[in-house]
Amino acid sequence: MVAVHVLNGPNLNLLGTREPATYGAVTLAGVEARLKAKAEAAGVELTFRQTNYEGELVTFIQQAGLAGAGVIINAGAYTHTSVALRDAIKGADAMTIEVHISNVHAREEFRHHSYMAPVCVGVICGFGVASYDLAFDAIVPLLEKRAAKPAA
Ligand code: CA2
After folding, report:
1. 18 lines ligand 1 (CB under 6 A)
2. Which of 11, 60, 78, 135 has CB atoms 3.0–4.6 Å from 72's, for a disulfide?
3. How big is the chain by its Cα radius of gyration, in Å?
């Protein structure tokens, strides 16, 4: 069975409670419920996690890699600062899609750069919480294709 770990970084626990003009009104629990429903319909095992700690995100990425799971990550502000997260994605060999709720390229310049993007299969941003759904729809066929390939 294909597995996907959805990992959320700092402050995303506040989703739906503050700054609705930027991040919308859906809570993180709401995002989790939507993705769980999609995963169940698609026969995908879904793990959904949030932490405010950089090192814990590193551990979550390593755990996903060891489990052979794909990763959908919204690393929040660590996207723009963390070499450790980039190294974790590369080191764990975890197929990863970076997501953002807001269009980071339409915001402050410091949000335009991502340390993780070069080691991800792709980046989806600017579609509100639907960015997560789009990432799920993109990663599942890639994981299925990889799972169908005979081991080299
Ligand atoms: O747009 C995104 O998803 C971001 O990853 C969100 C991060 C930000 O630092 C990135 O540049 C773009 C911030 C997450 C903070 O989430 C909040 C949600 C509601 C209220 C306050 C913060």
Report:
1. yes
2. 135
3. 15
Helix, strand, or coil (residue 139): helix
β-bridge partners, 59: none
Where do runs of H (alpha helix) occur along the chain? 20-23, 28-42, 54-66, 83-92, 130-148
Q: What domain count does the chain have?
A: 1
The 10s digit of each residue's pLDDT in 123-146 is 999 999 999 999 999 999 999 999
Is there a domain that residue 89 lies in?
no
**pLDDT tens digits along 34-74:** 999 999 999 999 999 999 999 999 999 999 999 999 999 99
Which residue matches tokens 């599942």? 140
What distance in angstroms lies between residue 28's CA and the mean position of ligand 1's atoms? 12
**Mean of the pLDDT values across residues 1-15?**
97
Residue 18 within any structural domain of the chain: no
Residue 109: give the domain boundaries.
Answer: 67-76+95-127
Q: Quick one: CA torsion of 109, 128, 17, 33, rounded to 10 degrees?
A: -140
Question: What's the longest Cα–Cα distance across the chain?
Answer: 49
Whether this model's pTM surpasses 0.90:
yes
53 is catalytic: no
